[in-house]
Design goal:
Length: 209
């Protein structure tokens, strides 16, 4: 089977209303902003220009990821694609930070402490998850549910969140706990992976246009 048949596309949801307001979102169920709607549609158009079609999709239990997926599928002409929704792909839970303005959080806890919570691998904010915790739930889900579909030749589209997708990219791109916190995923920009039979990456394209 050529690697072109083992297609995995990851897309971080479009800008949410709380991204726009500079708020910690986490598991709060916030919809897309108008810009986010357009980012999701543009992601679909970029995939269509590449001639990509999909067999199955996965997304989180949160509306901003689900809506991003729906808007992409509309652009692709694939409305109704079989889709699995699971909270294992949810964004990192920011706990007590959820709903707070990031600048207000810095005033309350200090610039350095908030930076550690946001950018360290294994330090969690009060009542929330670290990136390590997010990896611990998202990665097994990928290995047990998404990867087997890709390896049997299904073309898979995943619409999720910055931190849950980092967990997948960490394995695909062979990043480490030291390098993964600094890796940014842009909203609405598809990452197109083609895998080898042993699940390693044959090729990766970032569709920025």
């Amino acid at each position: 089977m050529p690697s072109s048949d083992r297609l995995l596309v990851l897309v971080r949801h479009g800008q949410s209303e709380w991204n726009l307001k500079n708020l910690f979102t986490g598991w709060r169920d916030v919809d897309l902003s108008p810009k986010g709607v357009e980012e999701a549609k543009e992601a679909g158009r970029r995939l269509k220009r590449q001639g990509l079609v999909f067999d199955v999709a996965f997304t989180s239990a949160l509306i901003r990821a689900q809506r991003t997926l729906d808007l992409m599928l509309e652009e692709l002409g694939q409305v109704g694609l079989p889709t699995t929704k699971d909270q294992a792909l949810n964004e990192r839970d920011y706990g007590d930070l959820s709903g707070l303005n990031k600048d207000d959080a810095r005033k309350k806890w200090g610039e350095e402490q908030v930076h550690i919570w946001r950018r360290s691998y294994d330090v969690s904010p009060p009542g929330g998850e670290s990136l390590k915790d997010t990896v611990a739930r998202a990665l097994p889900y990928y290995c047990q549910n998404i990867l087997p579909e890709v390896l049997r030749g299904q073309r898979v589209l995943v619409a999720a969140h910055g931190n849950s997708l980092r967990a997948l990219v960490m394995v695909l791109d062979k990043l480490t706990p030291k390098t993964i916190p600094s890796m940014e995923l842009e909203t609405g920009v598809p990452l197109v992976y083609r895998l080898n039979t042993d699940s390693t990456v044959a090729s990766k394209d970032v569709l920025t246009a």
